[in-house]
Protein: Oxidoreductase
Amino acid sequence: MVSVVVQTICIPRATASMVVPCSIPNRQIKLNPGRLPLSLASPTKLARRITCQAQGPAVQVAPVSDDSWQSLVLETDLPVLVEFWAPWCGPCRMIHPVIDELAKEYSGKLKCYKVNTDECPTIATRYGIRSIPTVMVFKNGEKKDAVIGAVPKTTLSTCIEKFL
Structure:
């Protein structure tokens, strides 16, 4: 599925180039106001002067299916963080960037995956998922801890640190 993010920004008058936060994770918009036209009547001219830059390598948390669950989650040497989510869940969308940050932060020490509960109800039922988002930590093939709801990054970090 392709999603389009549209963000309206207010460009203050300035003489030096500036960086404006962008709503796309790990991205920013770099502007050079001195080169912007006084009249923004032509949006295509403005669009050619805006650059969206990456702030570092983006980490995508891989999805897990019924077929890959055993090998990716239960039969691994590292601890595994699994986010149970659904596309229609607002709090799930809020926690996605946090899970991405944790995956990047704990790279090499922790594996991170996500399970779409609509597509994989068997896994969700097996682990008693009744509310999403639910984040579970597995170690040596066993469920060790679970956090329910959209919680702060510090809460998830504390949970992860117990099993590293």
User: Anything to note?
Assistant: The chain has two domains: 18-54, 62-161. Residues 90-105 form the longest helix (16 residues). Residues 18-54 form one domain.
